[in-house]
């Protein structure tokens, strides 16, 4: 079974492969994985990713997700499933609203291009 750091790296690589415009994004974010009686905090630095198990003091945003949901998304998720998890409240993002808007706009443009490609 993959370590948590490996799962985080896999999730980021799969997301960036699907949305290549995010590969150049320079960002430090915190990732909070919640289990029943445990919370794990990670600092993730992009590009890279460089992942460390610590509280990110220099994070621009904090991403909160339940551990079971994260495991499923990391192993089999795509942009559409991440968006669904965000819209239903399984993923919560707090912090710099400009970073949140930037990522949302890049993902929306990617989805629009995907829909246009299918329409032709």
Concise description?
The protein is α+β, with helices and mostly antiparallel strands. The chain is built from four helices and five strands.
Q: What's the helix and strand layout?
A:
Layout: H1 4-18, E1 27-34, E2 39-46, E3 50-52, E4 61-66, H2 67-76, H3 79-87, E5 91-95, H4 97-119
Parallel strand pairs: 1-4
Antiparallel strand pairs: 1-2, 2-3, 4-5
Helix pairs in contact: 1-2
Essential attributes:
5 strands, single chain, alpha+beta, five-stranded mixed sheet, 120 residues
Helicity, in percent?
40-55%
Q: By helix and strand content, what is the structural category?
A: alpha+beta
Quaternary structure type: single chain
Order of strands side by side in the largest beta sheet? Answer: 3-2-1-4-5
* Strand composition percent: 25-35%
Along the chain, the helix and strand elements come as HEEEEHHEH
Task: Count every beta strand, where a strand is a DSSP E run of 2 or more residues.
Answer: 5
How far apart are the first and last residues' alpha carbons, in Å?
Answer: 41 Å
Q: What's the mean pLDDT score?
A: 88
Gross morphology? globular
Low-confidence stretches: none
What count of helical segments does DSSP give?
Answer: 4
Taking the sheet with the most strands, its summary is: 5 strands, mixed
Rg over C-alpha atoms, rounded to the nearest angstrom:
14 Å
């Amino acid at each position: 079974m993959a370590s948590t750091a490996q799962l985080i790296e896999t999730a980021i690589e799969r997301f960036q492969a699907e949305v290549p415009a995010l590969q150049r994004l320079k960002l430090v974010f915190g990732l909070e994985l919640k289990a029943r009686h445990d919370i794990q905090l990670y600092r993730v630095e992009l590009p890279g990713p460089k992942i460390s198990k610590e509280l990110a003091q220099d994070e621009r945003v904090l991403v909160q997700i339940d551990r079971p949901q994260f495991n499923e998304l990391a192993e089999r998720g795509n942009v559409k499933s991440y968006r669904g998890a965000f819209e239903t409240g399984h993923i919560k993002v707090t912090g710099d609203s400009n970073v949140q808007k930037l990522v949302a706009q890049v993902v929306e443009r990617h989805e629009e291009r995907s829909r246009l490609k299918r329409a032709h």
